[in-house]
Amino acid sequence: MNPTQDPRSPNELPLIRHRGLRTLWLATGILMVVLGLIGVFLPVMPTTPFLILAAACFARSSPRFYDALVNHPVVGPPIRQWRATGTIPKRVKILAISLMVVTLGSSIVFFVPLVPVKIGLAVIGLGVITWMLRIPNTPEPPTAPQEGDSKS
What we know:
single chain, 152 residues, 2 domains, 6 helices, 64% helix
């Protein structure tokens, strides 16, 4: 398998034949991409789940958009990885959780004056962190022993 291609072809997912439904799936996919892009800048909103949903919508509506998304050099690899294994790399989890804690924590402490909003932000943050921790880590590839390493 070519590493730049999605392990599932769009042909494995049903391409919608009804023009109106296909347009609805396409519009939903575009909305998911927009939400994913917003998630790049807002740490409370996840990016990858929206892009995964966009890929599913495009697989049913537009093979061209599907291919463009899953073969994109930046957003394609996490989508292909998720579709192949249902896992997230440990370093990505650590980075995402760290950024959420810093940005949400500083927002709650320094910028948000209303207690109900502070509580809401904390609940959303804890929910996203809990969800992320429940997803399995991507297995690390085995490393070759270095010269000078000895097994005892």
